[in-house]
């Protein structure tokens, strides 16, 4: 059995230069900053990192830089999802060789595979690795669901199946998976896709893959600790505030997050097409909303 994963998983954006190249130096700075802000692991390139907008060579370069920047301080997870199983397996093996602690895998893009095809996909990748394997349930993005009974079967048949990231935001689904995991594999990590930590951890969830931790790490850490300690009244107030922040940052995602980072003194460049940059009107709204939430004054500035 691989190590158990819990807590906040930092998910850095991919930094780009003004001429649209990957900015590896700023990316490393971002990873170091997230670790110093207290994340328990780092995963890249998630959708916030524009994984579909990166070439294979860029993804390999970023894997190397992520492992180097983390320097063994926290586990590194690599999102290796692509359209074909062989492509995913090759990138997963590259990640393992580079020193990653695990990989994150969605059902194949575009194909909308049937259950048997999805199970074959996950088994082929998990079975090829010695490191941790996470499945990523995001039915809105790929039009298929990793059903709870599939999670149970993968736990039974794939020894290094260490966790699930769930971006369905469906309480019944999350509850069923947590129930299965607690009975079948203690230590299996069921993570919510963004920071709805209060309901997720109350049901037995392990933590969250974080979007707003790029902007408001203190708020996020306070929420996680309140949930972990069972301080329900405090956690409720913090969860409502995080929910408002997520509502701001999910508009034209991840361009809104990159702009918010710029406001906080941590610029990482623009997004790549087809993700458009924010309009001046949208920027003004993001700034005002962050001001009203107390983020601009209450969260760390710059890379210090």
Key structural traits:
304 residues; alpha/beta; TIM Barrel; 13 helices
Describe this structure in words.
The protein is of the alpha/beta class. It has helices spanning 24-36, 56-70, 85-98, 115-127, 139-142, 148-157, 171-184, 197-202, 217-228, 232-249, 255-263, 280-292, 295-298, and strands at 7-10, 41-44, 76-79, 102-105, 132-137, 161-166, 189-192, 207-210. Strand 7, helix 8 and strand 8 form a beta-alpha-beta unit. It starts with 6 loop residues before the first strand and ends in a 6-residue tail after the last helix.
SSE inventory with pairings:
Elements: E1 7-10, H1 24-36, E2 41-44, H2 56-70, E3 76-79, H3 85-98, E4 102-105, H4 115-127, E5 132-137, H5 139-142, H6 148-157, E6 161-166, H7 171-184, E7 189-192, H8 197-202, E8 207-210, H9 217-228, H10 232-249, H11 255-263, H12 280-292, H13 295-298
Parallel strand pairs: 1-2, 1-8, 2-3, 3-4, 4-5, 5-6, 6-7, 7-8
